[in-house]
Amino acid sequence: METILQAVREAAGLVLALDPKLVDIVVLSIQVSLTAVSLATVLALPLGAVIAVGKFPGRQTVIVILNALMGLPPVVVGLLVYLFLSRAGPLGPLGILFTPTAMVIAQTILILPIIAALARQAIEDAWREYQEQLRSLGAGGWSAALTLVWDIRFSLLTAVLAGLGRAAAEVGAVMIVGGNIDGVTRVMTTTIALETSKGDLPLALGLGIVLVMLILLLNAAAYSFKEVAQRRYG
Amino acid sequence: MRAPTSILPLRLEDVSFVAGERAIVNRVALVLEAGPRTIILGPNGAGKSVLMRLCHGLLAPTSGRIEWAAQERPGERRRQAMVFQRPVMLRRSAIANIEYALGIAGVLAVERTRQARDALESVGLSHLADRPARVLSGGEQQRLALARAWALRPEVLFLDEPTASLDPSATAEVERIIGAIHAAGTKIVMCTHNLGQARRLGDEILFLHQGRLAERAAVDRFFDQPASAEARDFLKGELPWT
Fold this sequence. Notes:
The complex is a heterodimer.
Chain A: H1 2-16, H2 20-53, H3 59-69, H4 74-85, H5 100-137, H6 141-151, H7 153-169, H8 172-178, H9 188-198, H10 201-233
Helix pairs in contact in A: 1-10, 2-5, 2-7, 3-5, 4-5, 4-8, 5-7, 5-8, 7-10, 9-10
Chain B: E1 10-19, E2 22-32, E3 38-41, H1 48-56, E4 63-68, E5 80-83, H2 94-104, H3 109-122, H4 138-151, E6 156-160, H5 168-183, E7 187-191, H6 195-201, E8 204-209, E9 212-218, H7 219-224, H8 229-238
């Protein structure tokens, strides 16, 4: 018990003192996950929209697969990206394995289905409700689409925040494609895994505290966006 | 800008709408003229809503022709409007919902607010202009939907059971507004389940039965001496509850 309390005290000290090593790791984590979320959002929202309102054969199957991919195991994504980026792989010549770029790619693939699936659901529900009214008013094509997306922007933002939470918390994918190299590709989750196995609990715990705070903050933000929107716009 | 010629009369030639095996609207032929308020009556599943959606262009007939006297072109301002059973409001203020519709109709931005205020005024919702549309009561939302439709100055207004989910006082208010829209020169085409309402608001009745136009008559004639056996059965079955 004494060791644990000691570790907690030291961890709190690291966080409060903004220990440079800890700060570097936190900053890299946020950079990687934010970049991945931005990329995934740009790809996932149009994808979700097309599946939501499109009529094409196999649509039901695509929806089932997309929903299933929300639970994609990060280590498997890491493994697949690793295979593509490794020296023998098709994208090996790019030489980006074990760089933050590889980590961004892996996380993008991991969270793209999450954002796309949640956006698909939100857009489909709204479209079912608005479709006739918008067509009746004479809003067609792009005009109707923009109206719809703007009207459910808070639901879409929630979808994006869900993706960000997942990216920030996962360890398997970035561990495999980043390699957990000190000062280069070491992020919060991978550092926690490594330091814990080495027995250096203060740094692991300190990062754990920061990570949990960030996730808490994200969820609080998502909740209050929805709440405020609900109250202000119905 | 209103085009010089009216879009009415609306001419339906042998119009059918088939979904799967079932003809929801079955070879309906009719002409809707400007002027009289037309009420579409019929039991559930008679095809009332589908017929209106066909007329309004939300559905395409599987066979037959629907022709307005002046054809609408895509991208042009619509000269007809529709109010649905459940009003669909965007997540913005009441007045912004009307301004949005005016915007699509090509009304200049500087004109929109004034026209939207006028429309709210005429349905008695001025005091709720800045409230979020979706938190208004069902009756208020339906009046807002009427204001939004009216603001577009349509030549024809379709109403799909506009009071089906409203209480009596909200229903009375909606009926007053529909009367005012008609008095201002808009052709009313409405379907309802409320026979009292059909009598109060209608000039003529279109009676649909299993997708077919079974009878068309002036309101008094229809209720006093229905010509078709289907209409007689319908009135016998429905009247005790009106």
